[in-house]
Amino acid sequence: MKKVKWGEFKIEELFDKIKVKSLKYKTAELPSEAINKYVLPALTAGIQNQGLNNFVPKDNATILKNVISISANGANTGATFYQNKEFTVLQDAYAIKWKSTTDNITDNQYIYLTSSISKTIFGNYEWTNKAGWERIKTEKIQLPTKNNKIDFEFMESFIVELEAERIAELEDYLSVSGLKDYALTAEEQHVLTDFKNVKWQTFNLEKLFGKSTRGRRLKSADRISGTLPFVTAGETDEGISAFIGNDVTVFSKNTTTIDMFGSAKYRNYNYGGDDHIAVVHTENLPKFASIFVTTAIHKSSHNGQFDYGRNFYAKDADELNISLPTSNSQPDYATMGTFISAIQKLVIKDVVLYADKKIEATTKTVERAI
Question: Which of 198, 213, 217, 320 matches a 20 to 30 Å C-alpha distance to 121?
Fold first, then answer.
C-alpha cells in the first residue's frame, strides 16, 4: 500500500442531510417482511439488517438509494451504514448524501466514506447525547488526499484490495471447516419438502430446560482484560461488550441468552454475562436443535413487549411459551436439527458461490494487469 496523505473534513462540508416526508406508521403495526403493498424497507434506529427492520408502502414515501444512513436514537445511536438499495426513513434515524453533484461516487467509495464517519461517531454518542445531524455535522473525519484533494482513487483501490483479502480468508475458512459441502442429504431434502406437514405444539421454557439463570452486574471500571467473552444487552458484536479475566460465573457453550429487550442469541462458546442477560440451559441439546430452539425463543420474546421501561428477566424466560415441532407430543429435536442443518447448507451455498465468483473476478483482474 502506497504512503497516504490525510486531510480532515467536517461532515457538513461533504454531506447534506436529506429531507424526507414524515410517515405516520407505528413500527409495531408494520410487517418485518415484504408483503402485499408493504414492500419498501423502512429505516429506524438499530443495527440489525442495517436498521431496515420494517416495510411500508411506497405511496407518499421518500424513496432513497445510494446514500448513508445514521441511527439517531437508542443503544446504537451513531450506527452508520451505506444503503445501496431503495429504502425510506421511518423514525429515529436519518440519511445523508454527498454534497457535490459533479463527483460520481462509487459503491466502494461510499463504503469507505461510511467507515470513516462510523469511526468518528459510533460509540461516542448515547441516550442522553444522541447522534442527531446537528450534533454530528461538525465532527471531523479523516480521508486520504492527493494534490490537496480527496483521493477517491485510493478509496476505491483500498476497498477492492480489502474485499479480496477478506474473500480469500473466507475461502480458507470454508475449506478448513468443511462448509464448502453444501449438497443436501436425502433426509435434509425431505425435511425441507415436508416441513409444512410438521405438527407443532406449545411448550413452557422452564419445563423443557429448567430455571433460567441471570447474569451478575460487572461495571466497566471493574473489568479485567482477559479472554472470556462478557455478554451484555445489545446487538453490536452479538452483545459481547468485552473480553474479561474476572472471576465470574461461566455459562456453558451451546446455550441461549435473552437480553433485557427479549433478543435471543445462540452461544457456541463459554461466556460470562451481566444482570441484563438471562441464560436458557439448552446445553444438553444437539447444536442444531439448540439453534432452532433459540429461534423459537426469539420469536416469542422479541415482539416489542420488552424495552427500557419493561426489561426481560430470567423469571420472564421461565414463563415463556414457545412453539416447536413435535413427535408423539414431545419436542422433535431430530427434525429441528435436520432442518437447521439444511438451512445452513442453503445459506452457505450462496456464500460459497459468492466467494467463488469474487475470487474468479479478482483473478481475471490481476491477469489483465500483468
Answer: 217
Report the alpha-carbon distance of residue 185 to residue 198 in Å, rounded.
19
Average pLDDT, stretch 61-69? 97
Distance of CA 168 to the CA centre of its chain: 22
Q: Which CATH architecture has domain 5-151?
A: Alpha-Beta Complex (3.90)
Cell of 112: 469507505
Give the integer Cα–Cα distance in Å for 25 and 9. Answer: 36
Looking at every residue in the chain, the average pLDDT score rounds to 91
pLDDT at position 102: 86
CATH of 199-331, one of 3.75.10.10, 3.20.20.370, 3.90.220.20, 3.40.50.1820: 3.90.220.20
Q: Count CA atoms closer than 13 A to 22's CA, side-chain side.
A: 1
pLDDT band at 300 (very low <50, low <70, confident <90, very high): very high
